[in-house]
Each structure stands twice: as structure tokens, then as C-alpha cells.
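Sequence, please.
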């Protein structure tokens, strides 16, 4: 198998979808992020599901998904915006999403 390398030839960490979703969940639980009070935002958040995938002889995997792709578009944008806003090297302020 191969690993992704950055421009300096060093290994780079692959950002996992699960990391971004758990980051948004953590920010919401700590009340560090305010989301738009909108029915479409709530519908998109409710559309997200998770499961633990177990296969004989393999490590258990955590899978996040939505049954309808179009329902998850808003939450996909939110998890990416929250991830970037939470990075230490980026000094930004978001008033609302």
C-alpha cells in the first residue's frame, strides 16, 4: 500500500470524515458554536447516522453516513467550516453559519 506525501516528501495525515463530525459534535456539546435556527439545518443534522462495522478478523470501523446524499449537504459544509474554524493556525471569527 502507499501513503500520501506532502510537497516535502513527508507523510501527511489523511483527514477522516469521522474526525470532522466528532469535532462538530464536540463544539455543539460545549456550546462553542451557534448554528442557524433553520428547519433545513436541523433536517440535515438529523439525517446523519452512524454504525460500527464489524468483520471477522478485522478491526471495528466507525462509519458515518446519510441515507440521502442531498439531505447531508448542509451538515457536510458545517463539519468542514467547523473543522477549519477550530484549527489553531487559522485566526478567524465566524458570526453565524
Amino acid at each position: 500500500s502507499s501513503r500520501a506525501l506532502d510537497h516535502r516528501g513527508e507523510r501527511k495525515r489523511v483527514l477522516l470524515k469521522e474526525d470532522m463530525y466528532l469535532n462538530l459534535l464536540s463544539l455543539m456539546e460545549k456550546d462553542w458554536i451557534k448554528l442557524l435556527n433553520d428547519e433545513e439545518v436541523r433536517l440535515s443534522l438529523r439525517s446523519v447516522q452512524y454504525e460500527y462495522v464489524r468483520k471477522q478478523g478485522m478491526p471495528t470501523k466507525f462509519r458515518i453516513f446519510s441515507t440521502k446524499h442531498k439531505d447531508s449537504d448542509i451538515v457536510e459544509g458545517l463539519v468542514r467550516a467547523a473543522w477549519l474554524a477550530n484549527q489553531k493556525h487559522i485566526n478567524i471569527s465566524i458570526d453565524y453559519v
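The beta strands are 48-53, 61-66.
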